[in-house]
Design a protein that fits this description.
Shape of chain A: globular
Radius of gyration of chain A: 24 Å
Helix content of chain A: under 10%
Number of helices of chain A: 4
Strand order of the largest sheet of chain B: 3-2-1-28
Number of strands of chain A: 33
Oligomer: heterodimer
Radius of gyration of chain B: 22 Å
Distance between the termini of chain A: 24 Å
Distance between the termini of chain B: 51 Å
Order of helices and strands of chain B: HEEEHEEEEEEEEEEEEEEEEEEEEEEEEE
Strand content of chain A: over 45%
Helix content of chain B: under 10%
Shape of chain B: globular
Strand content of chain B: over 45%
Structural class of chain B: mainly beta
Largest sheet of chain B: 4 strands, antiparallel
Number of helices of chain B: 2
Chain lengths: 628, 346
């Protein structure tokens, strides 16, 4: 038992260390379900606590290098990390990329944060660790590891009400015994979404129509301690989401309905023997999506994946991990006929601490896809402690890696137009940076600076050939991305008051390198759509006893909605101000947390996607009862 | 002194008044070419551009520029000018924006159900509407003075272009291979004529005969059947006078020259010219634009017979238009808005 716990702890230690600089306000949560992060030396990793009533999009939206294209409030929300597109971020759950096999992307608005204890954001191309899709970065969804002890039952009840008819209710029960842990989470949400807005594209105030959203999700975790060294875990998840598709601001009313049902199941067996941890996962995902726009279209896709890894500690200073993955995907709709694909991957990682101050990791993955594509993706990372004194230290990190994204089933098999001959998108990524920590008395400061350069080629674009009707994907676009990221964090731990100040800024130049059509040079050297060159967040959080409050200002710079970068496609920059006031009340066996928030305090009008309204000032209050 | 001031002021006033009445144009768009840019589906970024063939000056986003940055909406499908009023049909925003054609200042908007094309006859406008993707379309009759829909006439599935021929209106029901014939007096459907695959557009030749462009169909695997065809129909008796097989699937636009002698249609990045007396399709293209990916809209200037052809590229950025002389010689390239699909001449 202890060995198992230790191994799990070992697994997560490096992860916890890597995130140290970025997670000061978050409780340190040990994670599992992300067994490879031990080998992500030199990568920038940030973590955000899950557990709240928010969906993943709202949970991650204030991170400067992450841009969400929101198709409206509570509507479809797709990620863009470090100037890349939605399909160039891998979203991992038990090591399986849950991006839709047909669309290649994840709708972050329909994944409840409530199910997860932690969401890790790893930046840069690390297909060597995560496989296809990891070009701009990767999002790893994780739970706390089970503690096989007899513990009191913990029950959490959550309720939230907010502006524009927002109601969220949830319950989570966690039973831990020596032999097992059982955790059930259920969440329901509804949003009427009739918010007023005043878009310049309309010229007068309108009430948003046809944008109501409702969702339901259930997650069941079962962990069984097979013996002191082995654990068997099952994770079952079901998500339902129905929404009226929010029309563009210029439309009156709307009628399209989008219904999603996601079924996910993962079975994991983990065993420690000697210095080795054996880990195996079998995961299955089924996505059902129905789009009603006068006619009904149903798209179904499935993924089955088997993953095995061995993680061996060779010595105190070095470890190695190797493993293999087999994956299968299929899709069915009126547009797909026999659409399926398979892949197999083998990979190995080596981590070595050359001295207590110099760490490195080398990762390599060989993948084979059924469309005759065999990417080899190595990555190398290093972290050096340049100097360490009692009250300050300077860490340097560097990383180089390759990434790729295989074509989706739509790219290959969509009828008409699908092209089985297209190959994967590929990237090369170089990153360097440093972190500086200094503490003086009750003040702790940390400074992080990262610079990166990513080149993406063979990007898949659907274009029309020399005829009027057929759109078909080709490996065409090349994008060069240069970025700088800066973060300053200061914590003042005074006698009865803690203050944390945080400032983050990201500069992202994501530039198209090749014309989309041979005759059209006007798209060359243009910033990619929906990539703000400048974005940033500043926040101040104060904790006084059982009270805490925060002020946050997030800034998103000007973006273009297309590759022309013309004046008519400019989307103005905006800054959103948010306030939070929280109070914790400890009763005998119940902890009560009351959280109230005002979002978009300035009541400004803004858009993440052209001509799709986002709401003005909104209020919410959340009540959380934790019984144990 | 006082008198002088009064006199000077009067002269100045008169001069200004004269300027206002005579010398000043009524607006910037009293003539020229309107380019309809449908925009990217669901981005609601469709615009109208204006091209002045004399000066070759291009102005973009006329509606936004002249209406405090307002947007037209999603999938701007077509523009019809009648008198000094322009009607802009915004398909996926379910409306018709009505503006002063010379200034593009907004007048009002009319609700419509996935509108496509519009013609005007006297004081009335006739608009084809898809309704939805599931049911038959309709032609709505609009009172151009009140801008109110007076009546909707049920037609076939997927009505596209419509034309007045003689005393009747012909409507191309592109998704069900038929033409609805409407009597504009009784506002009823007189007849439904079956056609080959995908009737889309019309032209009237110098003999008063109606030409129908059927753009061709697709097989079960969505492969083009290359069965586009031109039909010549007597608009009074509905008898088929001539058939020209085009051996290709075409763009859904049919043009005719000033003399009403030659028809033009587009296939891929080529424009073909065919005489109304021909019985077979031309082998060689009239215009073949190697630089274009494919044409998404074509137009002919009724004053000069100059041909305009639009390339929407991949809707990822602004599109392009190519301008040619009446003999098909390249004149210039014009940067358009996003997704150019139609030209309207004034």
């Amino acid at each position: 038992m202890r060995v198992l716990l230790l191994s799990v702890l070992c697994l997560i230690t490096a992860f916890a260390l890597a995130q140290e600089a970025d997670t000061t306000m978050l409780e340190a949560v040990e994670i599992y379900g992300a067994p490879v992060t031990d080998y992500a030396v030199g990568s920038r990793i940030e973590t955000v606590g899950g557990g709240s009533s928010r969906n993943l999009a709202t949970l991650l939206e204030n991170i400067p290098s992450v841009y969400f294209k929101n198709y409206g409030n509570g509507q479809m929300s797709t990620i863009g990390m470090r100037g890349t597109s939605a399909s160039q971020t891998a979203v991992l759950w038990h090591g399986l990329n849950i991006n839709s096999p047909t669309l290649g992307q994840t709708d972050f608005s329909i994944i409840p944060g409530f199910f997860f204890d932690q969401v890790a954001i790893q930046y840069g191309s690390t297909s060597s660790l995560y496989g296809s899709g990891s070009i701009g970065g990767s999002i790893v969804l994780a739970y706390s590891p089970p503690v096989f002890e007899n513990k009191p039952v913990v029950v959490e009840v959550l309720g939230e009400v907010g502006s524009f008819g927002r109601f969220v209710s949830g319950i989570k029960a966690d039973v831990s015994r020596k032999q097992y842990r059982v955790r059930t989470s259920i969440i329901r949400s509804a949003l009427a979404n009739r918010f007023p807005y005043r878009s310049p594209a309309v010229g007068y105030e309108k009430i948003q129509e046809h944008a109501a959203v409702s969702g339901f999700g259930i997650n069941q975790l079962i962990d069984i301690a097979v013996n002191e060294k082995a654990r068997l875990s099952a994770d079952l998840m079901y998500n339902f989401n129905r929404r009226e598709v929010q029309p563009a601001v210029t439309s009156s009313g709307g009628s399209d309905i989008l219904t999603d049902r996601n079924y996910r199941g993962a079975l994991t067996f983990e065993q420690a023997s000697g210095q080795t941890i054996f880990h195996s996962t079998l995961a299955y995902i089924h996505n059902y999506q129905r789009f009603d726009y006068g006619v009904s279209e149903v798209n179904r896709s499935s993924q089955l994946s088997g993953i095995i890894t061995w993680n061996c500690s060779i010595s105190q200073s070095s470890s190695v991990m190797y493993g293999a993955t087999l994956g299968w995907q299929s899709a069915s709709s009126i547009y797909h006929d026999q659409a399926h694909a398979q892949h197999a991957e083998v990979y190995a990682s080596y981590r070595r601490s050359w001295s207590p101050r110099v760490h490195s990791s080398l990762n390599i993955r060989q993948s084979a896809f059924s469309n005759d594509h065999y990417p080899l993706t190595p990555s190398l990372g290093v972290e050096i402690s340049v100097f360490e004194r009692s009250n300050h230290k300077l860490l340097f990190n560097g990383q180089a890696g390759r990434g790729f994204r295989t074509p989706t089933l739509n790219d290959m098999f969509w009828n008409p137009g699908g092209n089985e001959n297209i190959t994967a998108e590929k990237s090369q990524h170089y990153e360097t940076g440093f972190r500086y920590f200094v503490s003086r008395g009750k003040v702790k400061n940390s400074l992080r600076l990262s610079a990166y350069h990513t080149r993406v080629r063979d990007m898949i674009n659907w274009t029309r050939g020399n005829n009027n009707f057929m759109w078909s994907p080709v490996n065409l676009q090349r994008v060069r991305i240069d970025g700088l990221e800066f973060n300053l964090n200061s914590i003042f731990a005074l006698r009865e008051i803690d203050i944390e100040c945080n400032a983050s800024y990201a500069f992202t130049q994501s530039v198209n390198q090749l014309p989309l059509h041979p005759s059209d040079l006007s798209t060359v050297d243009k910033q990619m759509p929906y990539v703000p060159e400048h974005s940033g967040t500043t926040s101040v959080k104060t904790v006084i006893g059982k009270w805490s409050g925060s002020v946050r200002c997030s800034f998103v710079g000007m973006r273009y909605s297309d590759l022309s970068n013309g004046t008519t496609t400019r989307m103005p920059a905006y800054a959103l101000l948010g306030l939070e006031l929280n109070r914790t009340i400890n009763l005998k066996r119940v902890t009560v947390r009351v959280a109230s928030a005002i979002d978009n305090l300035g009541d400004i009008y803004y858009e993440n996607l052209r001509n799709h309204a986002m709401p003005g000032r909104s209020y919410s209050i959340r009540l959380q009862l934790i019984y144990q | 002194m006082k008198l002088t001031t009064v006199l000077l002021s009067s002269i100045l006033f008169l001069t200004l008044s004269c300027d206002d009445d005579d010398a000043q144009p009524k607006g910037a768009y009293t003539s020229g070419v309107f380019i309809v840019n449908e925009g990217n589906f669901q981005d609601a970024d469709g615009t109208i551009s204006h091209f002045n063939p004399q000066t070759t000056e291009v102005s973009h986003d006329l509606f936004g520029t002249n209406n405090d940055g307002r947007a037209l909406g999603d999938v701007v499908q077509s523009l019809t000018v009648a008198g000094d009023t322009a009607y802009i049909l915004v398909n996926n925003s379910n409306k018709i924006e009505v503006v002063h054609a010379s200034t593009f200042e907004s007048i009002n908007s009319i609700e419509a159900a996935l509108p496509r094309y519009m013609i005007t006859l006297g004081s009335k406008g006739y608009v084809t509407e898809w309704n939805d993707f599931n049911s038959n379309g309709r032609v709505s009759v609009i009172n151009l003075s009140t801008l109110e829909v007076e009546k909707s006439i049920a037609v076939g599935f997927g009505p596209e272009h419509l034309i007045r021929a003689g005393s009747k209106i012909f409507v191309a029901n592109t998704w069900e291979n038929s033409i609805s014939v409407i009597d504009p007096i009784t506002e009823t459907v007189l007849e439904t004529i079956n056609t080959p695959n995908s009737p889309a557009d019309f032209a009237i030749d110098k003999t008063g005969q109606l030409w129908v462009l059927c753009k061709g169909g697709f097989d079960q695997d969505f492969a083009p059947l290359n069965d586009g065809v031109l039909l010549q129909i007597d608009p009074n008796t509905y008898t088929l006078e001539n058939t020209i097989e085009l051996n290709a699937n075409t763009l859904g636009t049919l043009l005719i020259d000033r003399a009403h002698d030659d028809l033009f249609y587009a296939v891929g990045n080529s424009v073909f010219r065919v005489s109304i007396s021909a019985t077979t399709a031309p082998v060689n293209a009239f215009i073949a634009e190697e630089n274009a990916s494919s044409f998404y809209g074509i137009g002919i200037d009724p004053a000069t017979d100059e041909i305009y052809a639009a390339d929407a590229l991949s809707f990822a950025a602004n599109g392009k238009a190519y301008r040619y002389t009446s003999t098909g010689q390249f004149i210039e390239e014009i940067t358009t808005g996003r997704g150019p699909n139609n030209f309207t001449f004034r």
